[in-house]
Design a protein that fits this description.
Elements lengths: L1 E2 H8 L3 H9 L7 E2 L6 E3 L4 H12 L7 H6 L1 H34 L7 E5 L2 E8 L5 H17 L9 E6 L7 E9 L8 E2 L2 E8 L2 E9 L13 H12 L9 E8 L2 E10 L3
Antiparallel strand pairs: 1-3, 2-3, 4-10, 5-7, 5-9, 6-7, 6-11, 8-9, 10-12, 11-12
């Protein structure tokens, strides 16, 4: 029998880790002195200890350790699932590194232009930033069908805009919009959500365009570089930049989206 220090030395586990495994019921001492409370371990416990040591080295979650110790089939399943997670994480890291390489290597020059926007009515449905592209496409399609059925079909390309959720400093809303000839009634809704409507006021706006086939470094979770470049250019012109004034408008080729146009209202 060995004391905790000897067992720790032989297995590569720390005494602190061994005490934790005892508390978790994963690896209890072979015996505990009733008076001194000193732990004693047996050589027969080496295999369990080495599995736990290997799990620590592989960053296997502690919650999965019981299955690792249970039997060969359970252990194999746990390891296979963990390998899959690690592979996915490695793929994500490699993609992030590729984007960083692009950011450091490329110097994209975005061409801006200033135009006079006309007044434009719109109807839209609110999404959460966590909603995916499939959900956004469903909303746009549903709204288009309902507007068309109501005799007020969209008059141009769709757009989205981002705004702060009313009453919150942190929550963000995405509004999916279609331009329309007439504002819908105030109580008019669709299956995908409550419809909001309004009017884009006429005035000058700065614009940047990009097509989907352009190879541009986009950091996961961040806005497209063209959006950031547009806001920086507008700010450099002395404009007061607000996300609620930014519209991401679909560029269509025979009705098929081929890119985006980003426009921001220029206000003092």
């Amino acid at each position: 029998m060995m004391n905790i220090g000897e067992f720790a030395e032989l297995t590569g586990l720390t005494p602190k880790a061994l005490r934790l495994y005892d508390e978790q019921g994963l690896l209890s001492p072979a015996s505990v002195d009733p008076w001194s409370r000193h732990r004693r371990y047996a050589a027969a416990q080496f295999e369990q200890a080495l599995r736990l040591k290997g799990a620590r080295a592989a960053d296997l979650p502690l919650a999965e350790a019981p299955a690792l110790l249970r039997d060969a089939e359970s252990a194999a399943a746990v390891l296979a699932a963990h390998r899959a997670r690690l592979a996915a994480e490695r793929e994500r890291q490699d993609a992030a590194l590729d984007v960083l390489d692009q950011l450091l290597a490329e110097r994209v020059t975005w061409q801006t232009e200033v135009r006079q926007a006309a007044a434009q009515h719109w109807a839209g449905v609110i999404l959460s930033p966590d909603d995916d592209d499939e959900r956004a496409n469903e909303v746009f399609a549903d709204l288009w069908r309902r507007l068309t059925a109501a005799g007020n079909p969209p008059t141009g390309a769709f757009w989205t805009t981002i705004r702060a959720e009313p009453g919150s400093d942190t929550a963000i809303q995405v509004v999916c919009c279609w331009p329309v000839a007439e504002l819908p009634p105030a109580d008019w809704n669709v299956e995908s959500g409550s419809v909001e409507s309004g009017t884009v006021e006429p005035g000058p706006e700065m614009v940047i365009r990009w097509r989907f086939e352009q190879d541009v470094a986009v950091v996961d979770g961040a806005a497209h570089p063209a959006v950031l470049a547009l806001l920086a250019a507008a700010e450099a012109e002395g404009a007061s930049v607000s996300l609620a004034q930014v519209r991401q408008i679909g560029l269509l080729d025979q009705g098929v989206p081929v890119g985006m146009e980003v426009a921001v209202r220029l206000t003092d």
